[in-house]
Design brief:
This protein has about 220 residues and is of the alpha+beta class. The chain is about 25% helix and about 35% strand. It contains seven helices and twelve strands. The strands form two sheets. The protein has a ten-stranded antiparallel sheet. A hairpin with a 4-residue loop joins β8 and β9.
Length: about 220
């Protein structure tokens, strides 16, 4: 016996938030192949279970369910974040291993704002440390490296790129001597979207290792 299918007008779909779990849960479970971002079907199912996704994302242009979920995650991560100094680790050792100048250490002491712009094309961070001390970096999602001024404000540049990890976006940079090394900053957002933990892992060319975390709260107003 043939089953009739009811077609909803696009306008009705665009105005109604629907749960994609009801529409594509079975299809996702059948697929074990990871998406372009490295997410498996089971991971996508878990994200779908957290809440509804506005179907208007899918109507604007032909996107897969995976792409729609990624866009929603990007929208949640973008914004302004305030540092929670009481929950953040000290950066004293990181300053010591690169022999950071006194004036820059003072700037770090007043650093309290992180702005993130996460789009389908790029990932950008702006660390507010007071005027010329601000650190602005932008990396494309296509995996290509970009060159930026050294974070310790010494002459020269570092080379970096952004990648997606299980915890979230990660910026990987490398720079030459003096005090050369590598660093990875991973941005791990809480499930409720209110807290962001930046996990920094530094490895100097001398072999010295320095790890610390910086905790941010989503800024309001």
């Amino acid at each position: 016996m043939a089953v009739a299918h009811t077609m909803l007008p696009v306008s009705a779909l665009a105005a109604t938030p629907v749960c994609l779990g009801c529409m594509c849960m079975k299809r996702l479970k059948k697929s074990a192949r990871p998406s372009k971002s490295g997410q498996t079907a089971s991971q996508l199912v878990q994200k779908l279970a957290k809440g509804p996704i506005d179907l208007q994302i899918l109507i604007g242009r032909p996107l897969s369910a995976t792409q729609a979920i990624e866009q929603q995650t990007q929208a949640e991560l973008s914004g302004r974040w305030q540092k929670d100094k009481s929950q953040s680790d000290s950066m004293q050792k990181a300053c010591d291993v690169v022999e950071l100048k006194w004036v820059l250490r003072r700037a770090l002491a007043i650093l309290n704002t992180l702005e993130i712009e996460d789009t389908p094309d790029h990932f950008q961070t702006i660390i507010k440390a007071g005027g010329i001390m601000d650190v602005v970096e932008q990396y494309p999602w296509n995996g290509q490296e970009r060159q930026h001024s050294r974070r310790d404000k010494r002459a020269g540049h570092h080379h970096g790129k952004v990648v997606r990890t299980e915890r979230g976006p990660a910026i990987r940079v490398r720079w030459a001597d003096p005090f050369g090394g590598t660093c990875q900053d991973t941005f791990d957002m809480s499930e409720d979207g209110k807290q962001l933990t930046q996990i920094t892992e530094m490895v100097m060319n001398t072999g010295e290792i320095c790890n610390y975390k910086t905790v941010y709260r989503r800024a309001t107003g």
